[in-house]
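Below is how a single chain appears once it has passed through the pipeline. First comes the sequence as given, then the structure the pipeline wrote out for it. We keep one example in the README because the format questions we get most often are answered faster by looking than by reading.
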Amino acid sequence: MSTLYFIRHGQASFGKENYDALSPLGARQSYALGNFLASRGIAFDALYTGTLARHIETADSIMRAYGEHAIPLPEASRMEELNEYDSHSILKGIVPELLEKGEVDPSDVARIFSDRKAFQRVFEKTMLAWVKGDCRASLTSWQAFVVNVHHALDAIMQRDGKGKTVAIITSGGPISAAIRQALLLSDDITMRVTWQIKNASFSKFKCTTESLMLESFNEVPHLESADLITYR
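Resulting structure:
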């Protein structure tokens, strides 16, 4: 049996032109995670990331901390299936329909990238509509996204499912999809789980080559101060 550490990337650059980059706080969170794991002597036999910049930058910060503890890490394998869903395209495709139906507040939509609370209200309604397939827009479906994540997870389990410790650096969506597989959650609940996953948190799974079990969820012992804990 192996242990999988699913790690969410550090805080990205919300509201900036390039969201897909760690903020200064995100780099700090990621380094703190690496320092915490390395200080406890946790050595990884395999390391996987998505291909997004925020995944790779999180891995780089963790690697820096491990280097300072003189603990080697394996070279990262990058998998596109571990990337987050394209929330920008989903918002662009579905928000106009929600406005037509009166299901979102136009003032929230106008402030979506400048007000975090307005963003969350619009985002939650949009993502639940996407998960339910309740939209006319031509988008990659939630079901297709989940299938891709499960393909990646199955490949990792087949390769590293016997007696290994594995780090998987990704985003909230793939982490919740893995939890969905382990706990047989509904799609609606899976999406709601996504919104609870903290930046630079880790969730631990036990696995064999054929089965997956959740051991712990959303741990952040390395982020002792409340101002280091973020969700977006």
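The chain has a mean pLDDT of 93.

See the next section for the split statistics.
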